[in-house]
Design goal:
Elements lengths: L2 E2 H16 L11 H14 L4 E2 L2 H11 L2 H20 L7
Antiparallel strand pairs: 1-2
Length: 93
Amino acid sequence: MVRNYTETVAENALRDELSHNAEKYRDMCQCSSCQAIILSTALNMLPPFYVSSKRGEVFGEYQDKNPQSHADVSMAIMHGINKLVETDPHSHE
């Protein structure tokens, strides 16, 4: 099965950001639709990294340890959060 490992990295980064800074984001909608906006925005800023095996995932995990890669993902997640806050996060309700 082929999948974009960058999605896994971005999903984990978003979950970490929201949980470690819960107070900061307490007034921000965090429903699945809003999280999808954040992730799609972030993923459009990041290069894809497709894997098709466990070996590829291990290489992806190794790449994720790179400080620059980690900073790029964090910056993309923050950009996605800012985009959500700039729009009406409750327009789907």
